[in-house]
Design a protein that fits this description.
By secondary structure, this protein is α+β, with helices and mostly antiparallel strands. It contains six helices and eight strands.
Length: 216
């Protein structure tokens, strides 16, 4: 299997998450666009942040990588809703990858408009009326003699376009952290706008991950 810095993204430590990159924003601005208008973000490590949110809230952790702000949302997928995707990409561009159990998706938005969104490795989720930037990059990786899993191919494709990636140590280290209350119902948006596409996930509030350093 081709080496990838994203191996941590398919571990049981992160059963549901959204990872968003926005060009030219700072972490505070990205958190505000995400909807975190109340509360004071604090710089916390992942271990320090585990006890932060109640069951009905998402945990947002933000930082920067190569000129892009990123937000790593766990315990929810509010970052995949149309409102957040529109706000995050306003006057800039964004890439978002989402994992919710067996459902994986990736999107590219620019100036508040969707350029493309699909489930990696799932042809029926592809919309030919949208940009093919990520789709072509993911497909090329899946056609290699020793391909990586489709979700990791999507993360590698995003890395190529932003010029950087996130390692497990970066995710575990100190990041700007805030709790975002979860709406009554958070449903991932259909990737390609086809009726019935994907699975209806309901409100996602997975139990707090076990990140005991002594068990690793």
């Amino acid at each position: 299997m081709t080496a990838t810095p994203w191996h941590w993204a398919l571990t049981d430590d992160y059963p549901a998450f959204c990872l968003t990159f926005a060009r030219g924003l700072d972490p505070h601005a990205l958190l505000r666009r995400y909807g975190a208008h109340s509360g004071d973000p604090r710089v916390l490590t992942e271990q320090e942040s585990i006890a932060e949110p109640p069951a009905d809230a998402s945990l947002l952790r933000a930082g920067t990588v190569d000129g892009w702000a990123f937000c790593f949302e766990t315990r929810g997928v509010q970052g995949w809703t149309a409102h957040v995707l529109t706000e995050v990409s306003r006057d800039t561009e964004s890439f978002t990858v989402m994992r919710a159990g067996a459902l994986h998706a990736v999107s590219h938005w620019q100036n508040g408009q969707k350029r493309e969104a699909f489930e990696p490795g799932t042809p029926y989720s592809f919309d030919p009326n949208h940009s093919h930037l990520l789709w072509n990059a993911v497909r090329a990786r899946l056609e290699q003699p020793r391909p990586v899993p489709s979700f990791l191919a999507a993360l590698d494709a995003v890395s190529e376009h932003i010029g950087g990636s996130l390692t497990e140590s970066a995710i575990e280290g100190p990041l700007l952290t805030v709790v975002l209350p979860e709406p009554a119902s958070v449903l991932p948006e259909a990737t390609a706008g086809h009726e019935g596409l994907g699975r209806c996930l309901g409100t996602l509030a997975p139990p707090p991950p076990s990140r005991d350093p002594e068990s690793r």
